[in-house]
Task: inverse folding
């Protein structure tokens, strides 16, 4: 029988939501072992004074299996 844990992380990118997701998952796998999935709970953007998007952010729940 397996037991899994879910942790919440926030990741950002100046390129895109996809890049923010990939960066977050990659960073999570550096610290957590047995990462099995991620669920994007929320997305947001930061907008600069010129009205352009300056940063993409995602809030994710990452699932990993405990040993």
Result:
């Amino acid at each position: 029988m397996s037991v899994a844990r879910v942790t919440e992380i926030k990741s950002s990118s100046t390129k895109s939501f996809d890049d923010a997701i990939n960066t977050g998952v990659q960073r999570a796998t550096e610290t957590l072992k047995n990462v099995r999935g991620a669920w994007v709970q929320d997305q947001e953007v930061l907008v600069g004074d010129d009205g352009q998007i300056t940063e993409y952010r995602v809030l994710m729940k990452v699932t990993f299996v405990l040993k």
